[in-house]
Structure formats: C-alpha cells, structure tokens
TrEMBL record, chain A:
<keyword id="KW-0996">Nickel insertion</keyword>
<protein>
    <submittedName>
        <fullName>Unannotated protein</fullName>
    </submittedName>
</protein>
<dbReference type="InterPro" id="IPR002639">
    <property type="entry name" value="UreF"/>
</dbReference>
<dbReference type="GO" id="GO:0016151">
    <property type="term" value="F:nickel cation binding"/>
</dbReference>
<dbReference type="Pfam" id="PF01730">
    <property type="entry name" value="UreF"/>
</dbReference>
<dbReference type="InterPro" id="IPR038277">
    <property type="entry name" value="UreF_sf"/>
</dbReference>
<keyword id="KW-0143">Chaperone</keyword>
Automatic annotation (TrEMBL), chain B:
<feature type="region of interest" description="Disordered">
    <location>
        <begin position="209"/>
        <end position="246"/>
    </location>
</feature>
<keyword id="KW-0996">Nickel insertion</keyword>
<protein>
    <submittedName>
        <fullName>Unannotated protein</fullName>
    </submittedName>
</protein>
<keyword id="KW-0342">GTP-binding</keyword>
<dbReference type="InterPro" id="IPR004400">
    <property type="entry name" value="UreG"/>
</dbReference>
<dbReference type="GO" id="GO:0003924">
    <property type="term" value="F:GTPase activity"/>
</dbReference>
<keyword id="KW-0143">Chaperone</keyword>
<dbReference type="InterPro" id="IPR003495">
    <property type="entry name" value="CobW/HypB/UreG_nucleotide-bd"/>
</dbReference>
<dbReference type="GO" id="GO:0005525">
    <property type="term" value="F:GTP binding"/>
</dbReference>
C-alpha cells in the first residue's frame, strides 16, 4: 500500500467526523456564553483564542514535530507547554483529547516511531500527539500549525451552533473569515524548533472560564 | 486499545427515552448485585451530572465507581457514532477498579431511536414505561424491537395511567421475534429477580464466549432472505452491493 499524500492526511485529521470525541468539546465557548459573551462576538472570541491559547498549542505542536524529526526528547516540549498552560482544567482537557487522538493514531500508524515515542509519554497532551500524527503523515510544520488553528476555530463554531443556534451558513462564514488569521498563526510559529521559543501567550479570562466550567454541575460540553 | 477477547468485564448498556427509569434501574441493579459482583457505572447526562449524582446519593455503590461523561448535546453520537469518550471512561474505570465484573453504561435520555454501538457495550437493555403510553411498544423502533432485553417499567402505575401492562408486554413481544421482555416494577420483587437473573445470564454468556454483541440498528429491519430476517448481528459487507435497496 502506498502512502497517502500529506494533503489528504491533513484533511483526515481536520475532519470533525474523526472519532476523537470532538463533539464533547466547545473550546471553552460554553462557559464564555454563560458568563455573558454575546453570540455576535463569537468571531472575536475565535480571534482571541488564535492569538493566545491556540497559539501556545500550535507552537507546541510545531516544536514537538521538530524534536521528533531530529530525534530529540519530547519531554522538554511537554514541560514548556505545561508552563505556558496555567489552567489545570485546560491541561486536563488537552491530555484527555491527547488520549483520544492517540487511540486513533496508534491504529492509523502502528509502525510509526513518532507515535511510539508519544505513546511512551505519561498522558501526552493533544498538540504533542498531533505532532506524531503529522510526522507519520508527512505534514509540514506550517500545515500542522494550520491544522491546530483550524480545528480550534471549527470546535468553537460548531459548539456555537449547539449553544446559540443560527443559520449554519453564517457559522461557516465565520470560519471562513477566520482562516486568514489561522494562516498568520501558522506562518508565525512554523519555524520554531526549541521549547523556549513557544510563546507564553495565555489568556487569563479564557483560563478563568475553563476553570469555572470544570466545576459547574450543569454543562453540555466537557470543556 | 483493542479489546482482549478474554476481557473479564461485561459492558451493559441501558438506554431508552427520558423519564422511563434508566437511573433507577441501574440503582436497582447495583443494590441487587453489589454484594456478589464488582461493579462500575458510566452515566451520559445531557445537561448536568444529575444522573451520576442521583446514583452516588443512592448509596448503592462507592461514588468513585460512578463517572459522568459529557456529550456536547450529542447523546446519540456519544453512544453510537463516536463512542471514544465513553470507551475511554469505561476502560479507565476497568483499569482503576480491576477486576470489574460489570460496567453499566447509562445513555443520555434521548428518544426511541437511540441504541448503543456494539463496539461500546456487549449487551443492552432498552427501557420504556407504561406511563409513556400503551402504544409505544406497538410503534416499535430499533431498541424496542431488537435490543437484547426490553424492559417495560413502572407496571404498578398501569391502573393510574389507563394502560394494561400485560397488553403492552404482549404488544412488545409481538414485534421482538422471540427476544425477551420483562415487565418491571420496583414494588414487585419477582420482576426484579427476573431482571437480575437476565443480567447474571448475560455475564455467564460473556464469560463462556457465547455472547456476541449485536447492533439493534438505526434502520427498520430489512430482509436478506428467509434465514436472516430480523437479525442485527450478521456481517453487513453485502450492504454495499449495488442491487441492495434499503
């Protein structure tokens, strides 16, 4: 069997139909709306994430890919991600998502050394696992970073359709409008190779919402 | 992780419409079985962890053995299409409390069409109740017609809601092609014993390898010829054949 193109693998990994429990995630949109974020500001929320918490995730993934392709230890990358993700709730979510993704990539690329390296880590977060999938699937750093950004946008917007229903073509238009920002993010982090270069671009308000959500007894989405 | 064919734990799904008594049935099974089996429970609540809290407060099981999964307003998806979150929760529970004999997975109360994927549970109970109306069983649906067990719950309420439980069970039996139906009431010890015996029987079948997880299916039964009528557990490879019309 010949290997598929990296472009098609990227499509596969970005597909909401991927069995990784994506339907349980709102990218912290649910507590944001509970806290009073107006529905018409959701596009701004998406942009805020791309410039802050999602930037940390994308940069982490790119640096992990660099470490994998040059045979360097992944643990310093995980530590750098932890240090830049101060919300315990968000770290727990990323680890749960990483576990779900690892189930899948271990099935798709059972022979991949990168997948084996990630599986040997203790509860690797999603960007680290996604980097292994990118390595196995032949994705470039910029494609990987774009994938992280794109998935985040789609997670917010598809949760928005559940939480504040609207004409779905409006939601798709929001995604479309956010794509240049995803490109900007991808290009900005694609050249990173060292953990120290991962930006510490947290968003205290998003982190506070994530923390509040983790302890609320009423929620539709896991996070 | 692929399942080992010798996995000890039986995974039992409980599904059915909102308010039919899924949480109470699970509490009942915990009460009846906790002294002889090692149990765990996963709940799929739609908006709250209400069901998990109900079960924890029922005092029938160590609260740590009861875990809730959020479904992102997709209770159907979480038990059928993308079972990842549930499967991870089941595997974690089995690992944390090994060896477990039985994990009960409660679906988020959805509607008459939601049933479990056989990749998530080994066997499943579909629950309806007399208060939902006597015609529910006749209307059918994948859970009513093809779940491994159909429970008609709250039979003691029959006189108050103008439904004859015996007729309802008979209607259900007529669409189930011989599959079991239990008329259950929390006030009828004999019916509880019947339910417990069914669960114990499924566990024994799981252990001896004779239990083959079957999909009740989302679709109406379709005929593949006389020998296959109505069975959901056969290979569907041929379903892609061009001349196959659903």
């Amino acid at each position: 069997m010949s290997a598929p193109s990296a472009g098609l693998v990227a499509h596969l990994l970005a597909d909401a139909r991927l069995p990784v429990a994506g339907h349980t995630q709102s990218a912290t949109l649910e507590p944001a709306l509970v806290a009073g974020l107006p529905a018409d500001r959701i596009p701004d929320y998406v942009r805020l994430r791309l410039r802050t918490v999602t930037r940390v995730e994308a940069a982490t993934a790119v640096v992990a890919l660099s470490h994998q392709r040059s045979g360097r230890d992944l643990r310093p990358v995980v530590e750098a991600w932890q240090a830049r993700t101060p919300s315990a709730a968000m770290r727990a979510t990323a680890r749960t998502q990483g576990k779900a993704l690892l189930r899948l990539v271990a099935r798709l690329w059972p022979e991949s050394a990168a997948v084996h390296a990630v599986a040997a880590l203790s509860a690797p977060p999603r960007p680290i696992v996604l980097a292994a999938a990118a390595d196995a699937g032949g994705l470039s750093p910029v494609a990987l970073a774009g994938l992280v950004g794109y998935d985040d946008v789609q997670t917010v917007i598809s949760a928005a359709l559940k939480l504040t229903p609207m004409d779905p073509v409006v939601a798709a238009q929001w995604v479309h409008h956010a794509l240049p920002e995803v490109d900007t993010l991808a290009v900005a982090v694609a050249t990173l190779t060292r953990p120290g270069g991962i930006p510490a671009s947290g968003a205290p308000q998003i982190e506070a919402w994530a923390e509040a959500h983790a302890v609320t007894p009423r929620r539709l989405f896991s996070a | 992780m692929p399942d080992s064919p010798t996995r000890r734990t039986l995974r039992l799904g409980v599904c059915g419409p909102v308010g039919t008594g899924k949480s109470s049935l699970i509490a009942m099974l915990c009460r009846e079985l906790a002294d002889r089996l090692s149990l765990g429970v996963i709940t799929n609540d739609i908006y709250t962890d209400e069901d998990a809290r109900f079960l924890r407060s029922a005092g029938v099981l160590d609260p740590a053995r009861i875990r809730a999964v959020e479904t992102g307003a997709c209770p159907h998806t979480a038990i059928r299409d993308d079972i990842t979150a549930n499967l991870m929760a089941v595997e974690d529970l089995e690992a944390d409390f090994a060896p477990l004999d039985l994990v009960l997975v409660e679906s988020g109360g959805d509607n008459l069409t939601a049933t479990f994927s056989p990749a998530l549970v080994d066997t499943q109970i579909f629950l309806i109740d007399v208060a939902g109306g006597g015609d529910v069983a006749r209307k059918g649906g994948p859970g009513i017609t093809r779940a491994d067990l159909l429970v008609v719950n709250k039979t003691d309420l029959g006189p108050y809601v103008g439904v004859d439980p015996a007729q309802m069970v008979s209607d259900a039996g007529s669409v189930r092609d011989g599959r079991p139906v239990i008329a259950l009431s929390a006030h009828d010890p004999a019916s509880i014993a019947e339910l417990v015996a069914w669960v114990i029987g499924r566990l024994a079948a799981h252990r001896d390898g004779s239990l083959h997880p079957a999909d009740p299916g989302p679709m109406a039964p379709h005929s593949h010829g006389p020998s296959h009528e109505g069975h959901g557990d056969h290979d569907h490879d041929h379903a892609l054949a061009a001349d196959h019309v659903h």
